[in-house]
Records
---
Amino acid sequence: MRTLRTIKLTLEYDGTHFVGWQRQAHGRSVQADVERAVEALTQAPARVVAAGRTDAGVHALGQVAHFRTASMLPIDRLIAGLNALLPRDVSVREAADAHPDFHARRDARFRVYRYAVLRRPAPSALLGPYTHHVFGPLDLDAMRAALARLVGTHDFRAFRALGTPTKTSRCALLLAELTEREDLLFLTFGADRFLRHMVRMIMGTI
């Protein structure tokens, strides 16, 4: 019996037209698109597991995922083949043979979300899908003070979607910062885990 390889992928995608990472009964998902490409390339069923299940409309610059395969395709051909089969809004940035026991979700130690806020009177024709447009004043000092209070290990149940199935709502938020670049604000959050809609709800509160 041929030993299965564990392939680690680093994916980039534009989430505008997806219902999220996870395969859904209705709507287009990133997982389904990637699995179809892997199956077409390897000629075998595949299940692709991601480090985090992004929600509808969320983009990714470095989503880590893995799948197991009996295919012996070299890594460079695997990357080229998957990118040839994937739609334009999904890309395999990197791929590598991983330890047989590697698991993208269980082995993830740190996850990062970044929100971009456009601060100017006029909306952007180019950045619209990737920024939240705010044309009123913002109290940046108050926002930074609020973010600082969130850092640490806390019970974040107030910032999760209702009905979220989880054993615990405690998360270690290790990074919550606000940076500026011209008309853009970037709010970056890093944690060992995030609850469903947690960052989105923090953003709405901040």
---
Amino acid sequence: MDARQDFVYSAKLAEQAKRYNEMLDHVKYIAKLDVELTTGERNLLRIGCKNVVGAKRESWRMLSSMEEKEQAKGKEFNAKRIAEYRRKVESELTSICNDIILLIDDHLLPSTSQCESRVFYHRMKGDCYRYLAEFNAGIEKERAAAESMKAYDIGIKAASELAPTNLVRLSLALNFSVLLNDTMKFPKKAFFLAKNAYDEAIPILDNLNEESQKGSMLLLEILLENVKLWSYDILEY
């Protein structure tokens, strides 16, 4: 078993044990070999990132809510302690996201020649900057949001070479539209991006096999839910 195979096996083993930090570390080792990741290896990267970053985001949301409640009760000492803990989580989340962004820029993008992989990495880069924009404020928030939009926009342009039903293309459209609505406060742009992605995919959905159709339908259902929700918001503009 060569080094790459060993890292893949270790990543899968860590996934089964739900040790996602270690899983992500093993996939990083593969990326730093400066090789084109297979679809399976990309999925390991996605799962590792989703779980590691997702846990930190959930901690941040919970602590932020607790802090607000303590402030509302006038318990400033408790609120201060929670705020310190929240800032610790923010620091950890910043480190993780910046590390992934660096991995993408220095190793993953330079090592790929496949359109789907390029779209995948630009989406992941946009996601990381979007997460940073969620908890930062002022100039740092604006910078993170702008970098997220830039990465997503590059991905959207590259995704034009993929089928409208492609899972990576659909998930990019979904995540980009969430940035536009939730962070940038552009509900109209979010609405039309999500609607266009949905409208382009639906007519050719029946051309897919059952397994591919199932994956695309899940994303299309979320896009449609957002389109319906945001349609009410844009009536106010």
---
Amino acid sequence: MKDQASVLRETDGEARKLARTLLRSARYAAIAVLDPGTGFPFASRVLLGTDIDGVPVILVSGLSTHTRALDADRRASLLTGEPGKGDPLAYARLTTQCLAEPVERDSETHERIRGRFLNRHAKAKLYIDFPDFRFFRLVPQSASLNGGFGRAYVLESEDLTIRSPGNEAVAAKADTIVQELLAKRPDLAATAAAGLKAGNGDWRICGVDCAGFDLISGDLLLRCEFETVAQGVDDIYSHISNMKYAIPEI
């Protein structure tokens, strides 16, 4: 019997960018874990953020089934990608297989993630510091991208994470970077959103890292990806000027 032709396409730069955008522009995701009591797959919905290295982050209650599942078995999958009108299977989606890392509450990592998470999910301030709530980093191990009919790809961990020597420096100065950008270009967020063909809104920058920046307006979240990963703080400014929607030099 002849081997069937593979349904997978070769993973290229366009596929990697789409996968990163689907993951980093998601405000929430479906999460699948293994129920420790029954062994059955258990699916739920979680708010989603990202750490400075692009790793997805979730904030969960210790009372939830998926938290107990992650404590028992670190394996989890995330499904991101929003359908629109018509056939929901015609829209791009990404399934990311992850290993969960609990974040210690009194650590620098927790403080960094907490700030980034609140920039996306302001209402989480009501419960983010409750004793039974905690963060997990969900470190990608592999991913399956369905970019639409006939566009299936397999991705590896390095395709979804930000590997830059500038990560720590950018994390330390993220708020300053945003303030300086807005001081020089008050219309930056609106211009970037228009370049991504987003509707009118009160757009603002809610996160920056070495691979791009995030825009938010109400419940809408956009991801602006750089063409190449910045190597440090100074690179952020030149990368923004070089983006495809042609923001003039800052």
